[in-house]
Amino acid sequence: MVITKTKILKTLKKLDKLYNAVNKKVEYDLPNYYSKLALLELCGWVEQSMDDILRCFQRKLKEEKNINYLETRIIKPTHSFEYHTHFREMLIKTIGITGVEKMERKINNRKKEILASSLGILKTMRDEHAHTYISGTTHRLHAPSISESHFRKIYDGLKEFEKAI
Asked: What is the DSSP string of 72-126?
């Protein structure tokens, strides 16, 4: 079991509780802080979970140069988490296109499509907020419960890939 949900789910729930407890009339910035933190925490968890899936293949490698190649040339340089552009590309570089085809045939296609869609939505949200600071012009942030909702869909999809390994 590589992908875990206990800590991230606990964090998202705590941020949602803090978000809902704030008197939004008095502390108008705090809800945005909690929302942005939940979004960024989820994105960090997604990237780390994808890296952990790739590291499952690393354990099967025997030669140090190949282990190092996977880590330094495939995992570390990938700085995002869209399904087709990032995750699938890392898998192709690791197990080849035929390996990815076999893997994708094993998994629930609906969960894979939901995963891809949720990752795209999450990436768009993250890009909107990761390179800005909270000010009067910040785009509207969703409640941490929305991040939790995306988490559940992404978790289910990533678990499918973990099982396929």
From this structure: IIIITT-----IIIIIHHHHHHHHHHHHHHHHHHHS-HHHHHHHHHHHHHHHHHH
